[in-house]
Amino acid sequence: MSELIPRQEGAAVLVGVDFGLPHFDSELEELGLLAQTAGLTPVARLACKRKAPDAALFVGSGKAEEIKELAALYRASEVIFDQALSPAQQRNLERQLDVAVYDRTFLILEIFAQRARSHEGKLQVELARLQYLSTRLVRRWSHLERQTGGAGVRGGPGEKQIELDRRMISESIKRTRERLAKVQKQRGTQRRQRERRDTFNISLVGYTNAGKSSLFNALVKARAYAADQLFATLDTTTRHLYLGDARRQVSISDTVGFIRDLPHGLVDAFKATLQEAVDADLLLHVVDASNQHYPEQMAEVQSVLHEIGADTVPQLLVFNKLDALESTQHPLHLQDEMEIDGVQVPRIFLSARTGEGVPLLRAELARQSGSAPDTMTPAADAELHDATDGLGTIPPLTRERSE
Predict the structure, then answer these.
(1) What letter would DSSP give residue 228?
(2) 322 annotated as a binding-site residue
(3) Is 88 known as a binding-site position?
(4) DSSP-assigned letter for residue 199
(5) Residue limits of the Hflx-type G domain (predicted)?
(6) Do residue 277 and residue 170 come from a single domain?
(7) CATH number at residue 321
(8) How far, in Å, CA of 46 to CA of 221, rounded?
(9) For residue 241, what are the β-bridge partners?
(10) CA atoms of 385 and 226, how far apart (whole Å)
(11) 98-132, pLDDT tens digit by residue?
(12) Less Cβ crowding at N or C end of the chain, within 10 Å?
């Protein structure tokens, strides 16, 4: 009966499985934001509990039937899981549900593919995309199962063609890594030039949609793209900032936002971008103060910083979006300290949108950067390096279901 009902293109059913881990997003709020950012329309949400993933269908046959009925009822064309699926689970679910099935990893890759602008960003996304596809040959190339070996040859169906596809992807990964290494070398040269100029380097880090780009624009009067959506910024932008109180210039970089369960392929692929954080003298850890889950988001950021080796870099906490808080939630003081991993870290509350608290931040940056001979005037508070080069986006991963 479901085949007779036309599906709504882009309509998606969101599915989350609670395995008893802390901070499970039972409302699938973040997955819904990811889906919308990727251009999909969530039409239904389903959360269930399991002790462990089902080896074949991840959720078990009974729950799979429930998802199928839900997708048919809302005429959904896609089902998105909040966890990573194995290639076999993804293939089995598609056959069981008769709709396209994707996981959280694919959704994040789709968004990154749509948003990458710079040459380096495109290479990084392409590398992560190829690494993801290399594990999905069993699903992406399922049409090859209809092929057989030559006359008198016994073996798996489509075996030779699959091996060719695997080799092609492996060679593409190798070429992309080589091209990315050249870009990383160029970025390293730029970084060494800044070090020779005795520049104090600051990197903005934080959970996606915490307002890093808005704060970046407020500090340096830049026009970096900022929007109320996930992963609005993918490419690193670095500019000079003149701090009058310290009578010196500093270098400040806006970096890609972090997110829960960020695919390891993306962490590896974005080493060059995240290297700005590793080499920084100070990290501005931007936090969305209006988000009730900010403690969990801060923990995720700390986890990624530890993974890339930036956990030892001094931090300054910036609790942004003060204007979005109710008056009863406003702090007594805009500047105080907060304990992170047993260390007292300076904290400033501000609103990048209204400007409240921004002068306090500039004063604190001047204090931490120290004084230096004037090498720049406020009028020269201009762009050092903007990674966006207007080359367009790379094609997104094709959302197509295997037969």
Answers:
(1) S
(2) yes
(3) no
(4) P
(5) 200-373
(6) no
(7) 3.40.50.300
(8) 43
(9) 250
(10) 18
(11) 999 999 988 888 888 887 777 777 888 888 888 88
(12) N
Domain residues for 356?
198-370
- Residue type (1 letter), 107: L
CA 300 to CA 4: how far, in whole Å? Answer: 44
Query: Which tokens in the block code for residue 356?
Result: 């409240």
Q: What is the DSSP letter of 1?
A: -
Say if residues 352 and 320 touch (Cβ distance below 8 Å): yes
Q: Tell me the C-alpha distance between 41 and 35, whole Å.
A: 7
Co-location of 235 and 352 in the same domain: yes
Q: Give me the count of residues in the chain.
A: 403
Is residue 65 assigned to a domain?
yes
Distance CA 274, CA 354 (A): 29
Q: Which residue has the tokens 């910083």?
A: 305
Instruction: Check: CB of residue 200 under 8 Å from CB of residue 350.
Output: no
* Overall pTM surpassing 0.85 (yes/no): no
User: Cα–Cα distance between 214 and 225 in angstroms, integer?
Assistant: 8
**Mean pLDDT throughout 176-202?**
77
Longest dimension (CA), the chain: 82
254 is in an annotated binding site: yes
Place of tokens 């300290």: 337
Residue 376 lies in a domain: no
The answer to whether 243 is annotated as binding is: no
Same domain, 123 and 224: no
Which CATH number covers residue 27? 3.40.50.11060
208 in a known ligand binding site? yes
The answer to whether the annotation marks 352 as part of a ligand binding site is yes
What local confidence, expressed as pLDDT, does residue 295 receive?
A: 93
Alpha-carbon gap, residue 35 to 111, rounded angstroms: 9
In the chain, how many domains are there?
3
- The annotation status of 392 as a binding-site residue, yes or no, is no
